[in-house]
Amino acid sequence: MGIPIEGDTIQIHSYKHNGYIHRIWEETTVLKGTKSLVIGGNDRTIVTESDGRTWVTREPAICYFHADHWFNIIGMIREDGIYYYCNLGSPFVYDKEALKYIDYDLDIKVFPDMTYTLLDEDEYEYHRKQMGYPDVIDHILKRNVDNLVRWIRQRKGPFSPDFIDIWYERYLTYRR
Which amino acid positions bind Mg(2+) 2, per UniProt (predicted)? Predict the structure, then answer.
């Protein structure tokens, strides 16, 4: 497993439990890269879905991936505040081709006032049965939902008041 280099542009690949590609983000600038943590930034990047459809992100975003946590966090910078989209998924790996993780369907959307909603529980249950998620994965994911909610409530990590602003300023230095 490699380490992405600060300032490099990488792709992000999201897979499903069955090994099939789920989604690809074409360009994310690495703002911090270690073997256990990657923080990236992107803006209006092309996203390719598993069926080949493409779309473009609408706003700047700061992405947080950690090798010890079964979630990743995207802070989206909008005019009315920062929205977070949190994906429950495997810890990331980086292999020179891309930063990769398995998406396990459950998501938490966090609003600028730090209220949040758990999303896609029905999709998770469907895929859990269809793809045969083992019980150990189910327990890990549910524990990580609790950990993520604790981070939100405590304003920890990417949810801390200045986190997104600091990393967005760093991102802008690479854009100039």
Answer: 105, 107, 120, 123
Annotated binding-site members: 87, 103, 105, 107, 120, 123
Q: What is the pLDDT of residue 2?
A: 86
User: Which residues fall in the annotated binding site for Mg(2+)?
Assistant: 87, 103, 105, 107, 120, 123
Residue from 2, 34, 17 nearest 140 by CA:
17
User: What is the pTM (predicted TM-score) of this model?
Assistant: 0.96
Catalytic residues: 23
Domain containing residue 81 = 9-168
Number of domains in the chain: 1
